Amino acid sequence: MLQQTSARASRQVPTLATNDDGPLAQGREFVWSDADFTRIKALIYKKAGISLHDGKHAMVYSRVSRRLRDTGHDTFKTYLDWLEQHDGPEWQEFINALTTNLTAFFREQHHFGVLDELLRKQNTRSWRIWCSAASTGEEPYSIAMTATEALGGSGSFHLVNSDIDTKVLATAARGVYKTEGVKGLSAERLQRFFMRGKGTNSGLMRVKPELQKNMEFMSVNLIQDLPFREPFDIVFCRNVMIYFDAATQRQVLERIHRVMKPGGMLFVGHAENFSDARSLFVLRGKTVYERI
Question: Where in the chain is CATH 1.10.155.10?
Fold first, then answer.
């Protein structure tokens, strides 16, 4: 049965926004200074491990200014002062504001071919899989579809899906997408794994409960102790580490290593390379590592 999204405000990891859809440098609604940026940079690093560079000024202004409007503050200083004085839900909103999630079904296709082959070799066992950057759900459901096809009725899997952004995680748990968002999927997969909306839901596709029954959604922060008691056979942590500095990368890799079985497989993003972590993982294919 599909688990409810955890109310905890901890978790993984995101992908940073790359565009500025707010006010331009001229005629900004709020006064914006280097000191404001430096302070926000320090806070998001402390809370989520995300390392912002100076080229993110416009993005940070755009995203955090929305929080000023929603909380009724007229300067970044008063908002940040208030934020640091309260240990409440606004911290999660602050993290959510500075993360976005670029994703698609079967993104980086070669990984799903490797996953399919891996599962078919031992298709009578039970697999534990963790998708550590679930975003709005396209990656988790791609994993679940691949696992269902590979294992058939012989084996089984349990897929844990996490993200630091609670809003996108809620979208992932719902499993409802616009028709154009699933257009890259085959007709066979659409028929097997999705229900087409009718009437007021026309133009929407919903993931079938049969696919969701093996899936769990929870909020997890990768720079904190991971809340898992049973180790995983497979971990997807793709396009996450690029937003951490080298020290944070190492710490996160060590945490992931601790929650994986020896010989477990780690799938990472196309721009990520962990050759400096040979004591933890060894490269076994294109951006696929084995836990040692």
Answer: 34-97
